[in-house]
Structure formats: C-alpha cells, structure tokens
Amino acid sequence: MIVWLNGTHGAGKTTTSELVQKLIPDSRVFDAEKVGETLMDITPALPATDNFQHWPPWRPLAVETARRVLDYAGGTLVVPMTVLVEEYWREISSGLAQHGIPVRHFVLHADQDTLRRRIAGDTVLGPNSPFRLKYLEPYTEAARTWLHGEAEVVDTTHLTPAQAAQQIAEAVKS
C-alpha cells in the first residue's frame, strides 16, 4: 500500500511522513523528489523547467520506483510529495493501480496565513523561500477544483505534526 501525503509546501508533509512511518508497522518513507533530483543531474541537462514534475519521465519513474521498492521490501510506502497538476496525479494513481497497488491519498491542508507563517520560519530552505511561496496559489486552485475531492483532507492548521500523523495512521489502519 502507498500512503500519499499531498499538499503544498509548509503543510507539514515531510515531518508528518516521518511520524506516520513510525505509527504504521512495516512502513518506509519514499521521497519521490529524489527521482526528480536524479533527472536534474542528467548532463547535458533535460529541457529547462521550473519543476521536474513537468518532465514526462518523472511520473512513470516515480511509479516504477515505488512499485519496485514494494516488490522488494513489501509493507507500506509513505510518500510525502506535492502533486498539484490533476493530469499528473491521474497518471501516477492510474500507474500504481495498474500494478495493483492501493493508494490512500491524503492532503495536508492549512490556511494561507498558517502556510505563510510556516514558510517564513522555515529553517531548511530558509525563511520566505520564493520556491515555496510560488506554490501557494496553485495549491489553492488545485484544492478548489479537484485535489480536495480526490483525497482525505487533514487540516493541519491547528494540529501538531504528531496529531496529524496519528489521524492519518488511524485512518489507514481502520
């Protein structure tokens, strides 16, 4: 099984995924961003883009990597990865379904003020990361048009990461 944690930057995906992994027996965290980083290392470079998800190889490679890890190790993969383009989510979810891999899709949501406050206090990418800030509006649009209808929404505005992880783990186990 895959537990996919979606949502924009600052919603708490990375922190929550590590905590969810500890609550679900025989689970591992798979950061599909590493697949994108591999593509970014190709030389000469692939065509310029502002997001590796726009490269057509990323989506099937993320699916194939997840499938291979599950075939090898079994259990559950917890995948903290923002996917805001509906077509890309459909490609990923249908690719996983073709391999018979069930997906529990969660969106970690927080209101705009909370997201901006978290981004402002980010110690990893730095305060007010332009990269993270530029995804707030696309997230809002995706949430309004398709994303919240495709997933189980966990509002993290007033939750600690531990509380969000507990809620997700309980939903997965039920």
TrEMBL record:
What domain of life does the native source organism fall in?
Bacteria
What Pfam families does the entry give? Answer: AAA_33
Instruction: Supply the InterPro entries for this chain.
Output: P-loop_NTPase
Q: What protein does this entry describe?
A: AAA family ATPase
What species is given as this protein's source?
Answer: Streptomyces alkaliterrae
